[in-house]
Design goal:
The protein has twelve helices and twelve strands. With 338 residues, the protein is α/β, with parallel strands linked by helices. The protein has a single domain, classed as TIM Barrel. Bound molecules: ligand PBG.
Amino acid sequence: MSRGPSTPVGVFPQTRMRRNRRWDWSRRLVRENTLTPDDLIWPVFVCEGKDLSENVPTMPGVVRYSSDRLPAAVAEAKSLGIPAVAIFPATPSAAKTPGAEESWNPNNLVCQAVRAIKDAHPDMGVMCDVALDPFNSDGHDGIVRDGHVVNDETLDALCRQALVQVEAGCDVIAPSDMMDGRIGALRSALDRNGHEQVLLMSYAAKYSSGFYGPFRDAIESAGFLKGESKDTYQMDPANSDEALREVALDIEEGADMVMVKPGMPYLDIVYRVKERFGVPTFAYNVSGEYAMLRIAADSGALDYNRVVLESLMAFKRAGCNGVLTYFAVDAARLLNDA
Ligand code: PBG
């Protein structure tokens, strides 16, 4: 993909770069990228119970909602112009098993949440994560046998999980598990069951990252993982050509949209993916990135509103069509007020 002609050059004093920056109107005229609420997907955590909003301690300002509270929370996001939400469950410990059977229980927390949102807001886009970690007593995204996360058996579980989510009303299936062949397996399972209209957003280049720490607290999977890494399926942060191979495979297997994750430390990957493939490209501005800015702002070190909008604009500049971000509601409010 080309981004226009090569940059014209000029020499001082004929060329004064500051001329275009002098006025608000001229800055607006030469602005190369825009950020609007249309660019935002809001990840929401759901917990068991009634009439609950629990704070996530490592993500100040982020809460887990019981599903009866979701319609009101989503109503606010919708009124601000946010097109879609992504649901993540804090499954009760007692429901977690080595086979992660709860992931395909048609009445699990995710399905309850999808139904609650879709009943109230049928025109809101709803995404569901596909991976076993919220349901797995080993804390891994796949099924563990003899100490190894097994690939092909996990694919069957992922397909069953996706089907209950879609039957509950989910619009976008977003596999985050990094098993090989999952996009192809999910596409054919969905199509075989009459769900050829359901979108697939692949977490195509997902790195094994320390920036997921607060998320694992939010869904209470950290304790189950017992300090183990996800290095045998998530990508090595040292690699970037490999990300292009992952994305190429997922597009070939039928992904409608691809995602890079984490976000801010991986904008070089976003840029390469968008340049190479020109497909709808997203990034996940993950929990640790949220915590860094939020906690720094709470301590007085940063201007929250400013750094939130600046970092989301950086995703657009790198080539993202949109961003999954815990800042979505705050950012949309700021954008609407601007
Ligand atoms: C799980 C999943 C993770 C995130 C989204 N889906 C964590 C992980 O892979 O351990 C991370 C999101 C975040 O940190 O905000 N498959």
